Amino acid sequence: MYAGTRARRMLAVGAGAIVLGLAGCGGDDDDGGGGGTATTTGGSAQAPADTSFELTIGDLVPLTGDLSPFGPPGRKSADLALTQIRDAMGEAGVDTTVSVEHSDTESSPQAAVQAARQLISGGAGCLAGPWASSETIAVAESVAARQRTPLVSPSSTDSGITDLDDDGFVYRTAPSDNLQARALADVVEEELGGTDGTISLAARNDAYGQGFIDKFRAAWEEKGGRTTGPVLYDPEQPSYNSEAGEIVAGNPDAYVIIDFFETYGKMGASLVRTGRFDPTRLFTADGLASDRIPDTIPTRALAGARGTRPGTPESGAVVDQFARIYRAAGGAPRQTFDAQNFDATMLCYLAALAAGSSDGADIAEQMQAVSSPPGERFTFLELADGIRAIANGDEVDFDGVTGPIDFDDNGDPTAATYEVYRYGSDGVLRVDRLFEARATER
């Protein structure tokens, strides 16, 4: 499994690399993949001698725990991808047998490792998920690399995943926090009208929280801004009265708090109890983005808060059709990272088809090739054409619902669309605008 390691590259948002989308939506609605020997760099995949193999894609979703609001939409998106794959295979005349098996990670690294092992022992050759960065790191180190099975996380954004020694078996369709932390710093600067103020920083003490807040602090201070903290808190604590007092101390001009819903239910209540917390001065990120403020969080802890989250391009045939098929399927409503899990499931299948194999190591070798130039570009709307091209041995470049994936040598996407959102006084999330961020090398 540890046959080699890709050269690591750090991602940053270059000074001219963020283009702010001025049209507001207004509605509710480098090695992280690691491994120099395990992947190609967009070269042509040889035509499979036999496309009649059987592939099981393991879907690691958080149906319980901190990230449970994301689980049902993520599971639904994986199932939608499977339906699209099966329909397109029929049209293309390819007889691969494909299935998706779901397993609950419980929003826990230990449970995620156990779920991943069970899926692989049950025949899964590729994993979509896990979701939390701490889960992905644990599965990468304990399962994916050791059992030579690739994973494609739809939502793990911790910048430390880029530097994992995973031998080319870890990918993600969500952008690194190297990208989002700088993007959020730009949004905060714009919303505050400059960088003269002091920002109080806080985060859950795990890979996601600490990684994100450290990157944000560096980006904000690089702009000349001042910070206090960060206050890092244990997600397992029963209450956070002391930490909340530290966060509001000194009457800061704004707050940046990085957390998940379940923990923020307790932190938010503690912040409200201080009598000094103003949620309209709060900025946050994807971990606290939902259609509306959950019942477990006091409205006064989030109403008026603003944040960024990975999204999809504002419009276009691909985005519109995904929204239609998602809506038509019924069940769980849209949620952050649902499209990313759709794309992750698609990429597991396309890489397996390019490899002509359900073996994890073979799939990993083709993951970058099917997601990046050169090659014929296609989306899930032209999936049958893309399948035919792969079966013919042609170079392809799959673009997801989230936009171009274009995995770099580290398994990270090199561009991302972000939404700037705001919670209204009614607790409903509304998207103000979109912008694109691109990775640049340092």
From TrEMBL:
InterPro entries: BCAA_transport, Leu-bd, Peripla_BP_I. It comes from the Bacteria. Transmembrane segments: none annotated. Residues 55-371 form the Leucine-binding protein domain. PROSITE patterns: PROKAR_LIPOPROTEIN (PS51257). The keyword rRNA processing does not apply. Keywords: Receptor, Signal. The keyword Flavoprotein does not apply. Belongs to the leucine-binding protein family. PANTHER family: LEUCINE-SPECIFIC-BINDING PROTEIN, PERIPLASMIC BINDING PROTEIN OF ABC TRANSPORTER FOR NATURAL AMINO ACIDS. This is Extracellular ligand-binding receptor. It comes from Conexibacter woesei (strain DSM 14684 / CCUG 47730 / CIP 108061 / JCM 11494 / NBRC 100937 / ID131577).
